[in-house]
């Protein structure tokens, strides 16, 4: 080690010989991995390429726009997308945390896994079935309740206006969205709650804490970052969900926070699904441009969620 | 738990029974008995049933089941809190309130699930007959007709998507677990996560944009639908296979290396067989996930009333899109369209459930025991 | 078949970190050589460089020469896969392939390499290897049961049978008994004694009684402190190492004063 000849050796160490079959196999694996990067790049590139005409062309030449500016067409859709997803999130997160706690800390051990499967069943239902159910079963069922709300609590901005006669309002759509994102948030929260260090839990219990106090002291602080990222992944789902909204919501394109009236904003995804089959020419480019915006929004939300998860991993020592 | 009201229980629970049975256990004093929460639940139920029965008697109309259940829940929460507050103090009261809330969260989630299954079952069985599975919708305007063309389209497109996704996804996961290091592996991991978050309709738009470059605008092809589904399916396959491959203990790889087995054969003959059951489960769950996708197929493959066996020519119908299009464009005989939609939805749910079930069975039956 | 191992000026690195420094020793054929030393002194790492298994760990690399009957393992154009076919290894924890039966496990070295072998030849090889590992009588009636159905000691002997089925020149054993109970350990030690007549055996062990029981020669490795490289302190006949070592550290270690 002391001689100069040894000191220069690190650069000279020979690469191990690789067999041909090994090279072919690892090459195939590498190609597949790179294909994913290429696909994603292609998704972004094609969407951008197809979107450019929608923004640069004179709005009068795009029939859906009928003269209005591109941004004034997109803005209500963006609002509707974010608004409906946010309402869904507000409804889903507390329930999901409750279910996750129920399964991880309240239900008897033998039952817990079975209960988890039951919630996972919700995730297995195709979105189009949720849409059908939301439009045909849920909307008529909640309509009387909506009428009651507007009559008695109409002074509250969210419940203002004349209740929709069909019940197919943005609140109904959000309820369906909430049901749809419930399983993913529950599954992630459950996993995080189960990872709570047993030592922390036992320390709390040994101090004479009740079960709720133990959860407040040990489980929730440990899982906070996880809950946030689970909620954001759920939000990403809700933003991009198409069919349930397209089938449940009867939209008028209005920007309003009133939840129960018949004038509702549409969402980007639902708007594409409803307009795309009949679209032609530049209208297609316009719809793809709105799709690109949706892609960008979900990308940001998901990246943020992943970032929080990865940071949590570094600090907690779990996983 | 021992109860203040039931002295025998105290005796049973203490390791050495005290000489005088009347003496109460210090640790059991000031506690509500086990039966109390259930009794309170019962009382709340009776009260709300009574209230809503009165409403019904006063105003006529149907008995409001949902309202009664909600009132029961609210009453139950309040009563438990107050009772526990009076007997056990504030800390216990809070604990009991949270227990009630957490349990009701589970019931809240069950409500839509049960409602959905009941609805799909009751309305889907109206047209769940042989004709549904033996005919297409060609030249059908009113009643009759079937979803055979949609089932065939779903099978073809999901099949192609699987054929594309499984090799790509599996090889990628092999790269990540067995070969990948450094920046490229990190980039792939990150972008697989990004791909997981792509909204399904965006995947459809991508496939459309891709194929319209070759075939011109307005193209709707079965294979385009399959490509859209692959974009959604690949990340799911990568994630699940990666997880399964990482579960294979390193010692097995080393054992094979030490026998002079090259790396590629080690992966093919030791690592993959060991994780085969898990990978199969993951693939089936991925299929179950994309088989219900509507939006990308609506955009990329369109819809049609006719049978189409060729994914490279013409529009192709699929089960989820059939449900959607029947619902959105109800013809003159609206009920016939709705009935078909529900029947197709029932068929779709059954397929997805079957896939999920088989996947779990595969995971349980065929995975090798890695524990020692 | 049995070959001589000559190690000349070997350094082992994990990326930048020097793990084992400047080892030179010669291991004679048909002998058992034990590597002893405190945890983290690099004896397992060094053992792995004798069949290039250290390359499985990313960043690990070697300077110097390892000559097997004069052929350098680290010469240009050497295929590590071929090296490992001729130098077998048994690991700390028994690791039978869970998807294979007992018989398939023994034959794994042959079948995994896609070599064709007739049914009768395979049966003969399986029996010969299992007999060689003193396992035949215990498992001959259940060759088609999974390898993981055996007890820990049996699994380890199965792994030895698997290693000798490919008729290697040298057998490396990385603490083969550390996960086993005393009775299984004794069975393995007896086995090592028998295998000595055919193979060059190198065994890493934490157990000094074991080293003194099974080995002809013993190498003592030590480490100056954490972050320092491991070194070969003393290498001699086992009797000499345990009775009259020349280095103070060796005496301290074998007499149980540290480690």
UniProtKB/TrEMBL annotation, chain A:
Localization in the cell: Cell membrane
Transmembrane region(s): 24-50, 70-103, 115-135, 170-194, 214-235, 282-305
Pfam family, one: BPD_transp_1
InterPro entries assigned: MetI-like, MetI-like_sf, Phosphate_PstC, Phosphate_Transport_Permease
Gene Ontology terms: biological process: phosphate ion transport
Membrane-related topology note: Multi-pass membrane protein
Keywords noted in UniProt: Cell membrane, Membrane, Phosphate transport, Transmembrane, Transmembrane helix, Transport
Entry's Gene Ontology cellular component terms: plasma membrane
UniProt keyword Lipid biosynthesis present: no
Domain ABC transmembrane type-1: 78-305
Keyword DNA repair: no
A GO MF term: phosphate transmembrane transporter activity
Stated role: Part of the binding-protein-dependent transport system for phosphate; probably responsible for the translocation of the substrate across the membrane.
Similarity annotation: Belongs to the binding-protein-dependent transport system permease family. CysTW subfamily.
This protein's name: Phosphate transport system permease protein
Organism field: Mycetocola manganoxydans
Automatic annotation (TrEMBL), chain B:
Record-given protein name: Phosphate transport system permease protein PstA
Keyword Cell membrane: yes
Biological processes per GO annotation: phosphate ion transmembrane transport
Biological source species: Mycetocola manganoxydans
CDD domains referenced in this protein's UniProt entry, alphabetically: TM_PBP2
Biological function: Part of the binding-protein-dependent transport system for phosphate; probably responsible for the translocation of the substrate across the membrane.
Chief subcellular location: membrane
Pfam families: BPD_transp_1
InterPro entries assigned to the protein according to its UniProt record, in alphabetical order: MetI-like, MetI-like_sf, Phosphate_PstA, Phosphate_transprt_permease
Protein's cellular compartments: Cell membrane
SUPFAM superfamilies, per the entry: MetI-like
Residue intervals of the ABC transmembrane type-1 domain: 151-359
TrEMBL record, chain C:
GO biological process, one term: phosphate ion transmembrane transport
Short name of any one Pfam family annotated for the protein: ABC_tran
Superkingdom of the source species: Bacteria
InterPro entries hit by this protein: AAA+_ATPase, ABC_transporter-like_ATP-bd, ABC_transporter-like_CS, P-loop_NTPase, PstB-like
The UniProt record lists the keyword Protease: no
Domain ABC transporter: 5-248
Gene Ontology terms for molecular function: ATP binding; ATP hydrolysis activity; phosphate transmembrane transporter activity
Gene Ontology CC annotations of this record: membrane
Keywords tagged on the record: ATP-binding, Nucleotide-binding, Translocase, Transport
Xref: PANTHER family: ABC TRANSPORTER I FAMILY MEMBER 17 (PTHR43423:SF1)
Protein name: Phosphate ABC transporter ATP-binding protein
Organism: Mycetocola manganoxydans
